[in-house]
Write a structure and sequence with these properties.
Layout (H helix, E strand, L loop, with lengths): L2 H4 L7 E3 L8 E3 L9 E4 L12 H6 L4 E4 L9 E3 L3 H12 L8 E6 L4 H15 L3 E4 L4 E3 L2 E3 L8 H13 L4 E5 L2 H5 L8 E6 L7 H4 L2 H13 L11 E5 L4 H8 L3 E6 L6 E9 L2 E8 L2 E7 L4 H16 L4 H10 L8 E2 L7 E5 L4 H14 L4 E5 L10 H11 L2 E4 L9 H9 L4 H5 L1 E3 L3 H11 L5 E5 L6 E4 L2 E4 L2 H15 L1
Parallel strand pairs: 2-3, 3-4, 4-5, 6-10, 6-11, 7-10, 11-12, 12-13, 13-14, 18-22, 19-20, 19-22, 20-21
Antiparallel strand pairs: 1-5, 7-8, 8-9, 14-15, 15-16, 17-18, 23-24
Helix pairs in contact: 3-5, 4-10, 4-11, 8-9, 12-13, 13-14, 16-17
Length: about 500
């Protein structure tokens, strides 16, 4: 595409140089620029892309998009806001792929990954191919691709959607994080449906207040468009979460609710939670049916209800919804069992917020026959306010809590644990153990556990690294737990 055609939709722009140059790709990372690319200089929290203009040109950039004057041997397009312009250019360059896909966005503090996975599974099982972009990976058909963020930037997002179109997808399901919505990564995406899971404290290091956090989530619903197409869009809201009233007010689209406690369009009753799974009766605007999930916990019922609501709105039969939901054995790093034949249960879960940790521990208490061990830490350079809450919840719902390092990033792990300990009273402190090294903490809990006990390793879930002082080291809670179980077996 010629540069002049690419930038034509931009209303405010100043072009220096030959706008007839051919653009072969868009890139925001100077290290990944290839000959013929348009390099987009973004101002980030720690890095300013304008500092790397010369490097981008040296690597073959055919033109650059900037916010400030630049003297370069390639065409320069100057705009007031490169991040906002990037979304316009990405949609234009990749030929507006979300006009060809039915795009479903899932947002909320907890449950995004599982809900998105369940929606994609149901749609694929019906024979309507759906791509997935989320915290764990991007998935198209049987192939998975790594992702840099839960919700990629506008360029990566539109590129991925175009790939899905070319692979024959009819749907795309994405996790829409509050950061991505606030930073405009989803601008240019035409959403067919938006799903809300829940809203609890998280990311206040970025959003500062819960009101601002809620408003960021709300962008998904308010930006759905103000017209009613032949295939109407809709918002799927959790009737049991008070934030849903706000989202219902700001979206122009139709609203469908789901829930357990309050009246809703799709509801679960007769919930039975056991160690081998969860059963409930689903009542909906399409009828009622009994569901027997392999997934465990009340939070799993909420995720299943959200996915079922989308599926029913898309015309999937109740019987097909039941078949797909019941076939799902789990999602990576979400209540994932690590089994080496030991006489107790080891679970790895991504729970890294107060609400998600409490949900997981309450569920464990419903089937644990022995003691509950909880290995948990908090991430560095993130919301400090939730640290004492996490510790208090861990102590309240566990027999033994092992405080350890999570991803300390630039912070001192011992200082993070000290912040957590502020949430404990004297009695809870007596039951708490501190083992800063996460590998040793996991080994300690595994060695202490006996028949019928449950060991929960919380916070990192599917992650395969630990970030310390800016360096990422290989670290997978599941593999570390497996090694500890094998070492224990050898010692026995």
């Amino acid at each position: 595409m010629r540069l002049k055609d690419l930038v034509r939709p931009l209303l405010l722009k100043e072009i220096t140089g030959d706008a007839r140059v051919e653009i072969r790709g868009l890139e925001t990372d100077s290290r990944r620029v290839r000959p013929g690319d348009l390099f987009i200089a973004l101002r980030g929290f720690t890095v300013d892309g304008h500092r790397y203009l010369a490097e981008a040109v040296q690597r073959g950039a055919a033109a650059v998009l900037v916010e400030e004057t630049a003297d370069l041997p390639v065409p320069v397009i100057r705009v007031p806001d490169t991040r906002r312009a990037m979304a316009v250019l990405a949609a234009n360059f990749y030929r507006h792929p979300t006009r060809e896909l039915k795009l479903i966005g899932v947002t909320g503090t907890n449950g995004k990954t599982t809900t998105a996975h369940l929606i994609q599974t149901i749609l694929n099982d019906r024979g309507t191919p759906a791509g997935l972009i989320g915290t764990i990976h991007m998935r198209i058909g049987d192939r998975s691709y790594p992702v840099r963020n839960t919700t990629p930037d506008a360029v990566d997002l539109q590129r991925s959607f175009r790939m899905m179109c070319e692979e024959g997808c009819r749907y795309a399901v994405i996790e829409a994080s509050s950061h991505a919505l606030d930073l405009g990564r989803t601008r240019g995406c035409e959403f067919h449906a938006a799903v809300f899971t829940n809203l609890t404290q998280d990311h206040l290091d970025y959003h500062e207040t819960m009101d601002k956090y809620r408003e960021a989530k709300g962008l998904l619903f308010s930006q759905m468009g103000n017209r009613f197409a032949d295939e109407p869009g809709y918002a799927v809201l959790n009737a049991d979460d008070e934030a849903s009233a706000y989202f219902a007010r700001i979206t122009p689209q139709q609203v469908i609710t789901y829930g357990i406690e309050k009246a809703a369009d799709v509801r679960a009753e007769n919930i039975q939670i056991r160690s081998e799974g969860t059963s409930f009766t689903l009542h909906s605007f399409r009828g009622s049916i009994d569901i027997h999930l392999q997934l465990i916990g009340k939070f799993s019922v909420y995720n299943a209800l959200a996915a079922a609501t989308v599926a029913l709105a898309e015309g999937v039969s109740l019987e097909a919804v039941k078949g797909s939901l019941e076939a799902v054995s789990g999602v990576a790093g979400r209540f994932e069992k690590v089994n080496e034949g030991q006489p107790f249960t080891v679970l790895v879960d991504y729970a890294h917020t107060p609400d998600s940790l409490q949900n997981v521990l309450v569920t464990i208490r419903q089937f644990a026959r022995g003691s509950v061990y909880c290995v948990v830490g908090c991430g560095g350079d993130r919301d400090r306010g939730k640290r004492p809450q996490m510790a208090r919840i861990a102590a309240e719902h566990s027999d033994v809590v092992v405080f350890t390092s999570d991803n300390p990033r630039s912070e001192d792990p011992e200082a993070i644990i000290a912040d957590m300990m502020e949430g404990l009273d004297d009695q809870d402190r007596e039951r708490a153990v501190t083992v800063v090294d996460r590998r040793e903490a996991i080994r300690y809990a595994v060695d202490q556990a006996g028949p019928g006990d449950v060991v929960l390793i919380a916070g990192k879930g599917h992650e395969t690294y630990q970030e310390i002082k800016g360096v990422r080291y290989d670290f997978d809670d599941r593999e570390v737990a497996r090694q500890a179980l094998r070492a224990r077996a050898r010692q026995k």
